[in-house]
Amino acid sequence: MQDLLNKILQGMYGYGLNPAIPERGFPGMIKPGNINIYNRPLVKNPKGGTSTVYSMGVNLDGNQYLIPRITDDGKILSEREAVENFKKTNKHFGVFESPEASTQHAMYLHNQQKSFYNL
Q: Which whole number is the average pLDDT over 27-50?
C-alpha cells in the first residue's frame, strides 16, 4: 500500500511519502529537514486549533533554518526556547536560501499536516 501511495504522490506532486524531503527539491531549499513529520505530537495551541509543525524561521551563522516550536514531547516553545532547543538538538524542517523560502515551506508543511491529520 505504501508503495502505491508513494508512486501516486510522486506522480502528482514530485515527492514521495516524506514531503519534507521532496525528490525534486523544494524551491529555495538548500538542505532538507531532519525531523520525521509523520511522528509529531498533536498539540492544542493557544490560538485555537491543533499544531504538529508549529515553526519559525531563524537566521543563524548565515543559514536560514525553519525550526520547530513544538518539542518531540509536545511542549510549545517560545521563540527564544526554540532557538536554544535547535542549538542543542540541531533538529530543523530545512535550511533555505531566504526567509521567504523558509516561510513558503512552513506554509506547505502546515497544509500537508492539516490534510494528513484531517485537522
A: 86
Rounded to two decimals, the pTM is: 0.77
Alpha carbons 37 and 78: distance in angstroms, whole number: 20
pLDDT value for 5: 52
Cell digits of residue 95: 535550511
Q: Which domain holds residue 60?
A: 27-116
Q: Which amino acid is at 114?
A: K
Domains in the chain, number = 1
Distances from the Cα of 108 to the Cαs of 53, 62, 73, 74, in angstroms? Answer: 10, 23, 23, 21
**CA 33, CA 3: separation in Å to the nearest integer?**
22
Residue ranges of alpha helices (H) inside the chain are: 2-13, 79-89, 99-116
